[in-house]
Amino acid sequence: MGKRIGMEVAVAVAEAVGLCNIDMAAVYPITPQSHIAEHLSDLVADGHIDCEFVTVESEHSAMSAVIGASGAGARSYTATSSQGLMLMHELLPIASAMRLPIVMGIANRAVSGPLNILNDHSDIMPQRDAGWIALFVENAQEAVDLSIAAFKIAEHKDVMLPVSVNIDGFQLTHMVEPFEMPTQEEVNEFLPPFVPHATLHPSKPVTMGAFAMSDYFTEIMKAKDEAVKASKKVIQQVFDEWGEKFGRPYKLVETYKADDADVMMLTMGSMGETAQMAIDELRAKGVKAGLVKLRLWRPFPFEELKAVIGNAKKLIVTDRACSFGGPGGPVFSEIKSALYAEARRPLIYNYIIGLGGRDVQVKEFVGMFENVLADTANKAADTYEFWGVRE
Amino acid sequence: MNPTEIMVSDADEKDVDTSRVAPIENPVLSMLRQDRLPHIWCPGCGIGTVVNCFSRALMSSGHDMNNVAVVSGIGCTGRVAGYMNLDSFHTTHGRSIPFATGLRLANPGLKVVVFSGDGDLFAIGGNHFLHAARRNLDMLIVCVNNFTYGMTGGQVAPTTPLKSTQSTMPFGNFEPPMNLPFVADAAGASYVARWTVFHIRQLVRAMKEGMEHKGFSFIEIMSPCPTLYLRRNKLGDGVDQVRYFKEHSVLKNGANTQDVAITATDPIVVGTFVERERPTWLDSRNAQLTATLGDRFVPYGGQNVQK
Questions:
Q1: Which residue of chain B comes nearest to A32, CA vs CA?
Q2: I want to staple A131 with a disulfide (CB 3.0 to 4.6 A). Which of A96, A140, B58, B267 is the partner?
Q3: B46-296 architecture in CATH?
Q4: Are A187 and A24 within 8 A, CB to CB?
Q5: Which of B207, B273, B209, B225 is nearest to B28 (CA)?
Q6: Any idea where the domains of chain B sit in the sequence?
Q7: Which among B80, B149, B168 is the top mutation candidate for probing chain A, defined by the most A β-carbons within 10 Å of its own β-carbon?
Q8: Would the CB atoms of A46 and B155 count as touching at under 8 Å?
Q9: What does CATH list as the number for A253-386?
Q10: For A65-78, how does the pLDDT look when each residue is reduced to its tens digit (9 = 90+)?
Q11: Are residues B155 and A38, on separate chains, in Cβ contact within 8 Å?
């Protein structure tokens, strides 16, 4: 078993990726991701990992370089944040269409403007339809575990898709947290050497990213959709394997005191732990409150979500981004559409919280529950509200 | 008043009748957004000196300040746009020149100055620099070269000298750095100069020249980053670096830009390297379309329109 240690989470992520026998990393500096890149470059320079590390001239080049490397059959990693991810946007659907199992760490940060470097989810939300698997983590242990498991998911022959591991910027990346770091031997047993299934090959030449007009384009999009949907089964399988080996099982949708809950809250990322404390407070007051934590954003775990919502009467969806002029937060509209056809579904409330690094405390999560419980006429159901906004 | 009269040490302060001492205001304070101060730059950083020189250049230029705009990218130098008491754009990383292009062409009478760092202008935004120079767009590009990505923690930049240590080059940089004046010259810039933050008088003059020059003007300013470049390479503090600039700079106006690359051993060549007349983008466009369309074309901006 690995040792329990304390470490800055961004450094821990780099250490975890360093255990994965990666062949190539291309990274461009951006706050709050940069510590991942810096520590990876240390690991490469110190000879701990046999990997090419290239300090490219932009995130666009970083993603292009790992697409090239992955196309050559190399296990490839990159990391970014915010504007960097927005600059990569053009290439994300190409990586998934070419079925390249790239793993990317995203230190989630608000998107400009105004310029802000702190945490929310407005960088990952516009990448929703890129065909990438998107995982969210809540603490150092999950960041380490899923950064390793992501390679196994991505490279599975039934998946062959890029995976993003979303780690809240600063709130997670810059915290020193205790966690258990797997050993190199354990990771070697869990993650076999990369066997590429679809790459360039000198004796079997292929063209990647070739031209496809209306005669084939629709079929290729359908194939991609099927691939992303089918990956859900493998993701749970890999999580189960991880649980067996390391004793830390993961689910696509996690819950906390949700079994008999009347009123539930849904979170993604690091705020789940704060919300958990609010649930404890509410339970102590006799409120049957519960928590749902969405670990997998794409492919969306429809069945798993429905199963945990159970008979809850009210569901509070928290969003760390806004779809301006749209139905509210992007997670809210996703949950609403997921539950639309259900005969019995909870009233759904939406709070847009923690934008651009604004702190949301336990008492505020309690406040959200209290507001929703006080709405006995259900007037606020199906609407959204910017939590704590000064107007 | 002799400035020495008000220089008192902390120990003496309580014994001095300060009511008789007139407060001295920084002469460029009116050029700064004082509500944004204090600035974020580290002690010993050279960007403040560059801003001071730029303020003095503007103040003595006689330009209407309502007709000057500053455009910055991202990074330590990118902060300049927010501190100048002028209309300014703080753009995304690398895109200051495209923003400035739109600004300049939509309002051809405007003086547009791009203020950004080496990483912003030559790595993530390098492509834009080449094309703006090729087009000879009428703007001044002020590039503060501190050899590193300062804002994000000292990663290797396209200007980092060989063998220098950076957070992503722990055993020394092996990527050859760019020779910025040579790139600017080759791409078609019509005014190219390099100074350091030691050369404050020359810098003020160069900035005025660059603003008056018709066409694409580029000034590289070598500047210390004590926190992330000098410290990591054991090169002393900001003052040591400025002393180095003083002792190792050689003035060569009109130098061949191929010969001005920064190396660990050669002297730093400073001066005005390129000053040539070339039609600006607007002048070329007006000339071409007038030649083709005659009276049917109404010239826009450029030398034909005095604003």
A1: B152
A2: A96
A3: 3-Layer(aba) Sandwich (3.40)
A4: no
A5: B207
A6: 46-296
A7: B168
A8: no
A9: 3.40.50.920
A10: 999 999 999 999 99
A11: yes
